[in-house]
Amino acid sequence: MIRARRATTPAPAETRVRRAYFDCRFGQLHMRYAIPGGGGFDEATPLLCVPGAPGSGRFFDPLLLPLGRDRSVYAPDLPGCGESDAPPRSATATELADALADFIDSMHLRRIDLLAHESGVAVAAALARLRPAQVGRIVLSPNSDAVRSEAQSLRHPSLLIDLRAAQERTAEAGHLENQAAQLRDFLGLP
Question: Are 74 and 101 contacting, i.e. CB atoms less than 8 angstroms apart?
């Protein structure tokens, strides 16, 4: 018996936002991430977002969709913050960078770009110093004297931007989209 086959059209490829846990030296690292509808693993250099105090990747939620259109974007809760396991004692920026390096290794990421906010700038700078060959472009926020000084010490292309509006849940979508467009331009995305 011959059966007629129904024509199916594939679902539109949309950016997907998910959460997961990854192992690191301090236990489990909670991660929010966005991947493009096509998979995200070969499209562009992944972006690792490093939050400032209180260390929750939730800060980057408004940017995950617009930045995750062409690349994988990862926003962890730093160890001891959010839903990540805590280190046995207060961790230094270098130790937090080591935990993020554990994530990079577990995902077999050969190259990453960084987006860091407030106290996450010190963690991103430590990661860039630990893994200079793996870190590409670095975006630092906010545009302050301390952050400008940190950016000058790095040997990576860097952009200074003020992402504090993302903290305000009342921020206009257009403003966030403009910031995402500025980030996408710097990061070399269409």
Answer: no
Q: Provide the 10 A C-beta neighbour count for residue 77.
A: 24
CA distance 128 to 160: 16
Which domains occur in the chain, in start order? 16-186 (3.40.50.1820)
Both ends of the chain: CA-CA distance in Å?
50
In terms of pTM, does the model score above 0.90? no
Provide the token pair at 123. 């963690």
Bridge partners of residue 73, in order along the sequence: 34, 47
For 147-174, letters b (16+ CB in 10 Å) and e give beebbeebeeebbebebeebeeeeeeee
pLDDT tens profile 138-160 = 999 988 888 888 888 888 888 88
Inter-residue long-range contacts of 6-14, CB under 8 Å, 24+ positions, other chains counted:
12/37, 13/37, 13/38
Contact assessment for residue 47 and residue 74, using Cβ atoms and an 8 Å cutoff: yes
